[in-house]
Amino acid sequence: MEREISEGPNGVQQLMVEHLQALSRLVAGGPPSASAATTTAEEAPADPSIEYHYGLEAIATAIDEALAGARKEILTAQPDGPRPGPVLDEALASVRRQIEEGVAMRTLYQHTTRFDEATKKYVRTVSDYGVQVRTLAEFYDRIIIVDESVAFISANESRSNAIAIREPAIVRFLRDIFERSWDRAKPFPFVSTHAARAAEQVIPSLRKSIGKLLIAGYPDKQIARRLGISERSLQGHIAAMKHELGAHTRIQFGYELGRNETTLIL
Fold first, then answer.
1. Is residue 132 within 8 Å of 105, Cβ to Cβ?
2. Would residue 50 be called left, alpha or beta, if left means φ above 0 and alpha means ψ between -120 and 50 degrees?
3. Residues near 78 by Cβ (< 8 Å), separated by ≥ 6?
4. What are phi and psi of 54, to 5 degrees?
5. Predicted model pTM
6. Between 20 and 30 A from 113 (CA), which of 10, 49, 229, 245?
């Protein structure tokens, strides 16, 4: 992502980078505490375009308020693989009125959701309203963008806190990232498919991502989370990839992965 940003062709894109970097520093440090406050005249006031929400209930309330005011488009990216059926039902209930009234909606999931019956049922239902759903092996953290006016992102690893962003440059930047991922994603199969057929469609892409993350040095736990699969499933994929490459040890496997990085087709 950083490479794509740095190659931005114009000043507007550079401005978005600067805003995102400032946001990253804010997230990393968390909201300013009362003890850290100063009384100097030069101190800048809190940025009204960045608002913290603490706890799942507060986050849900803020998102529901934003969705209620949607007029044109809702974009959502939901990583971590399949979501529980009740969560999907709640998600549908929160946007049903908007999509019935013609608000466009696009959602990104990870490839592993194609094996989940609850998700397939949800996708079949929302597709009848015109919602578009696609999947990728991996992408960024959870995000919701409403009408190009507000974007919600996680503020901590557990996603128990969130930030609502209304700074236009950052919202445009985040929407651009979503669009780039959307272009690379594959349409979700709305019709019922056998697990074997779904595997044929997504496993090559999934294993390609596993290989890239292993070469980059990510630990297994982090790879599994980024791909929305269990560590046990990840080990199964790694075993199959080792067999494909004729590797007997993890070290040999890593060597073969690196040697074949540009030519290997899994």
1. yes
2. beta
3. 107, 108, 109, 142
4. -105, 125
5. 0.61
6. 245
